Amino acid sequence: MRIKELSRRFRAWQVAPFHYEGAAESHTCANCGQSYEGDFCPVCGQRHDVGRVSWKSVGQELVKIWGMESKSLLSSVLQLLGRPGYLIGDYIGGRRQVCYSPVSMLFVMAVIATVIVQLTGVKMVEIDAVATSPFPALAKTVVWMLVDHLGWGMLIFTTFLILPTWLLFRYAPRHTRHTLPEGIYIQLFMSTLVLLFFVLARAFTSWLLWLVPVYYCIAYRQLFGYGIWGTVWRTVLTWLISYGFALMFALEIQFILGLIPHNEETINAYTVGIPGLFIIFLVVLFIGYWVGKRQAARRKG
Q1: What is the pLDDT of residues 194-209, one digit of tens each?
Q2: Average pLDDT taken over every residue of the chain
Q3: Other C-beta atoms within 10 Å of 208: how many?
Q4: Overall number of domains in the chain
Q5: Is 19 exposed, middle or buried (0-12, 13-18, 19+ CB in 10 A)?
Q6: How far apart are CA 225 and CA 243, in angstroms?
Q7: Over the stretch 176-190, which tens digit does the pLDDT of each residue have?
Q8: Is residue 153 within 8 Å of residue 68, measured between CB atoms?
Q9: Pick from 259, 294, 277: which is nearest to 139 by CA?
């Protein structure tokens, strides 16, 4: 088969990986005795083709054990690698049967990553490098988030991406005006993707972690429908502002709690410098929002 044909099939799979065809004939449920039309009993939910145990049913159970049915964890992870933005779009658009629960998927991936950290001793952040940081209080926060509590840390870290993503992609060609609750689920998927690459990096090579920003751009382009340049500058800006907010928030909290010494230099930095930088970030964020709104108005015009 030619490469062009394989590429065409792959793109078609990315957009529509599942095809549903309902059974039109009438059935009587083997479980509860209800008569109905379609694939599933409306009373108890059992499939219409369930009968006596056969070699086919044995094969189906083996497929389920290895997680190859459409809603399994393995299938969802493969979709997250092959069609991340389309998968997220399907889920927040109401097609919940296409994948595993994103909350459960993040939890399972966090457990796997934590086990790998415990078994191998290889962490996302090297403690020796953090120990030499000029901001010891901030270093302790980083260790807590990315070493001691990897799952929670990743969830907290990506929480700061929700608002910038919501504003910068507010008027995107696809999923226009996505809501903040939908933004939470977008970042649940993306957090799982980051942890997945961490696991793959530990299993193969740490260079795979460089694919994380690339996959963010791929996922956002598939999800929101901007072109390459429009996706890249918005994604980069989202990252810079989000992690800038996270850093400023952590430093301010530690300054307020007295974990950072209060002297003339730090007082000026934390009462004037960081709030000023926060305002600059907000201005840049709303400029990006305004640009997206203007572009959406031109598309409609």
Answers
A1: 888 888 887 788 788 8
A2: 80
A3: 16
A4: 1
A5: exposed
A6: 24
A7: 999 999 999 999 999
A8: no
A9: 259
